[in-house]
Specification:
By secondary structure, the protein is an alpha+beta fold. The chain has a single domain, classed as tt1808, chain A. 29% of the residues lie in helices and 30% in strands. It has four helices and ten strands, in the order H-E-E-H-E-E-E-E-H-E-E-H-E-E. The chain has a five-stranded mixed sheet. The protein has a five-stranded mixed sheet with strand order 3-6-8-9-10, sandwiched between helices. Strand 4 and strand 5 form a beta hairpin. 23% of the residues are buried.
Amino acid sequence: MGATTKLTLEEFLQLPEEPGKRFELDRGELIVEPSPTFRHNAIRFRIARHLQDFVRAHQLGHVTVENDFRLGPDIVRNPDGAFVATEPLRRMNVDRSPIEGVPDLAIEVVSESNLAQDMLTKVHQYLDAGAKAVWVFYPNLKVVQIHDGRALAR
């Protein structure tokens, strides 16, 4: 097991961009994730494209991929995809990163490097912060889990 790096939000925001790495902050712990694979990106963009087509047709808001969302004082998550409804989007500063607020829908595509307990932690964090739903795609299993907070055990 590697060493844990604890950071404040201010320290996290000062991290330099590093090619091939994505950063998240989990209750002050720095999470470094490798760049997604080509397959992962293809799946993520396909999901986002279909969701964007629906959202645009019904004028519901906006779909985005790989944006940082500040879910709490020391939690910053970067979902593979996200939907934000029109009204909450008006209250968000979309020119800042991380975005102060939570997506209405967070989408995660599970990679082989993702641990089950880490994914469940993310699901809880999104829902606890106010997300209405979280979709977790398991491409190798061809399974999608839909979480809306009602069935999550604590």
